[in-house]
Design goal:
- By secondary structure, the protein is of the alpha/beta class.
- The chain has two domains: 107 residues, no CATH class; 160 residues, Toll/interleukin-1 receptor homology (TIR) domain (Rossmann fold).
- The protein contains ten helices and seven strands.
- The strands form two sheets. Strands 4-3-5-6-7 form a five-stranded parallel beta sheet, with helices on both faces.
- A hairpin with a 3-residue loop joins strand 1 and strand 2.
């Protein structure tokens, strides 16, 4: 049974409508369509449940894969029946999502006393806990976060001007303030991290405040090196492309990002950053 409020359900479903605009190729094997369809499936399970009429209706839709037929040297046509099936299913799914949104919004209007809980509030900032000796790699992490869609004022990182502590500000007070805010903490775990008293203090403060956190590991450090300290299921290596995709999904959801990159654009930018990271490693 899901615990999302109607407001949160509406937000998640509106994100599907927005993301559907990235589907510009009427082909079930298109990477943008696949990404969107997978997002629809995950969202429906979260919002309605995998035994709901909404999810069952979604599963019955057929987006037929079809093969291009080359006519002449430069003209491509498609099997009309497959194209018609794709268009009908795509249109029907979008129409259904819009109908679900309308029904939920009516419920919100009918229940004006609904109070948003902590799950309905977007996070405000990413706090990057790192050793200053790893600043070159941390700069690439900032690049990843900004590529995902975060603004510079949503990232707190003490190593770089514009992301950290203003001149004249109290260092420890500012860190305490940022950790106490609605923030997601990313630990950049390295051999340098464990040698830094400030980093270990930030980790301790995160445990005390029960802040949501993600460990990001810098090789040659491995998952086995942090076993028993941070749950392995939450972590990723700084150069793991597939897990960076999961990080992107989480940031988009937790910060309510709407103006996000298409899958193909994100993957191109992601791979370029990872290539720079691997050179440094």
């Amino acid at each position: 049974m899901n615990t999302f409020s109607d407001n949160e359900k509406v937000r998640l479903l509106k994100k599907l409508i927005e993301k559907s605009k990235s589907v510009t190729v009427e082909n079930s094997s298109d990477i943008n369509f696949k990404s969107w369809k997978n997002l629809v499936e995950r969202t429906f399970i979260k919002v309605f449940g995998n035994e709901s009429p909404e999810f069952i209706h979604f599963c019955k839709l057929r987006f037929s894969a079809y093969t291009p037929i080359m006519i002449g040297p430069s003209y491509t046509d498609y099997t009309q029946e497959h194209l018609r099936t794709f268009r009908e299913s795509f249109t029907m799914l979008n129409s259904s999502i819009e109908q679900y949104i309308e029904e939920l919004e009516e419920q919100v209007v009918d229940s004006p006393m609904e109070v948003l809980d902590s799950q309905d509030k977007p996070l405000s900032k990413v706090f990057i806990s790192h050793a200053s000796a790893d600043s070159d790699l941390v700069e690439e992490v900032i690049e990843i976060l900004e590529t995902i869609g975060l603004e510079s004022n949503q990232i707190f990182c003490t190593s770089f001007e514009g992301y950290g502590i203003d001149l004249g500000a109290n260092f420890l007070d500012k860190i305490k303030e940022e950790l106490s805010a609605d923030s997601l903490v990313i630990f950049i775990l390295s051999e340098n991290f464990y040698k830094s008293p400030v980093c270990l203090c930030e980790m301790g403060a995160t445990w005390v405040l029960a802040k949501e956190h993600i460990p990001m590991i810098i090789p040659p450090l491995d998952y086995s090196d942090i076993k028993g300290v941070i749950p392995l299921s939450q972590g990723l290596k700084i150069n793991e492309t597939m897990k960076l995709n999961s990080l992107k999904d989480k940031i988009e959801n937790d910060f309510y990002l709407s103006n996000t990159l298409s899958s193909s654009t994100w993957e191109r930018k992601r791979d370029r950053i990872v290539a720079r990271i691997e050179k440094q490693l």
